[in-house]
Amino acid sequence: MSNVVKIEKDRIATEKRLLDTIGEMIAEKGFENIGINAVAAQSGVSKILIYRYFGSVEGLLAAYIRQYDFWINFPREIPRQEELSDFLKKMFRLQNEQLHNNPTLKRLYRWELSSSNSTIDKLRKQREETGLWLINTVSELTKQDQKEVAALATIISASIDYLVMLEDFCPQYNGIPLNKNCGWEQIFAGIDILINKWLENIVK
After folding, report:
1. d(Cα 195, Cα 143) in Å, to the nearest integer?
2. Residue 5: is its pLDDT beyond 50?
3. Which of 66, 24, 55 is closest to 42 using CA atoms?
4. Is 173 helix (H, G, I), strand (E, B) or coil?
């Protein structure tokens, strides 16, 4: 094995250890009091390497988000027109599952909402690129104006993110239990109605 390959493999392993560590620390303590010294001590990785690979603790937090974020990692697969309804319904359910099942990611989403820097701007730009691609794709498939598609997609996707982040502090919203599966089934039944009605109007 060449030195270059070994160094690259070592870096990948070290980055994974740091991402695993930051995930564990946030799950246990939250992110507010996490510093470079604490990360270095718990991971066994020197501060020099943390700075070299991620630039800062904020860069490490952003890398964790990037690894698990639903929209950043969304596969750019174009459905056939007849599959669009099922595609959209499944997509929004998967968005919910990805965030709902990762408490660390939920905490980092809250951190991101309260912060603004170049690292976070890059994350938002990556999500925006996926969102615009999806809007353009659906607009072409349905022959509908992009502004209309963008408005509907924003209402649904932003509502999902907001309610998932809210559920830890507010177990009920408009009488819907956010901390129970039946509550989310009720929400997605409503989302299905929105999608069905929108697609029906297009057919007409």
Report:
1. 15
2. no
3. 24
4. strand
d(CA 157, CA 148) in angstroms, rounded, equals 14
Q: How many other C-beta atoms are found inside a 10 Å radius of the C-beta of residue 121?
A: 11
CA gap 154, 136 in Å, rounded: 14
* Phi, psi torsion values for 176, nearest 5 degrees: -95, 125
Place of tokens 């976070």: 120
Query: If you search the block for the tokens 């990556």, which residue do you land on?
Result: 126
Contact 106, 164 (CB under 8 A): yes
Mean pLDDT of 143-156: 96
* Confidence (pTM): 0.86
Percent of the chain with pLDDT over 70: 94
Arithmetic mean of pLDDT over the chain: 89
Pairwise CA distance, residues 15 & 63, whole Å:
9
**How far is Cα 70 from Cα 93, in angstroms, rounded to an integer?**
11
Burial class of 192 by CB neighbour count within 10 A (0 to 12, 13 to 18, 19+): middle
Q: Which residues pair with 173 in a beta bridge?
A: 176
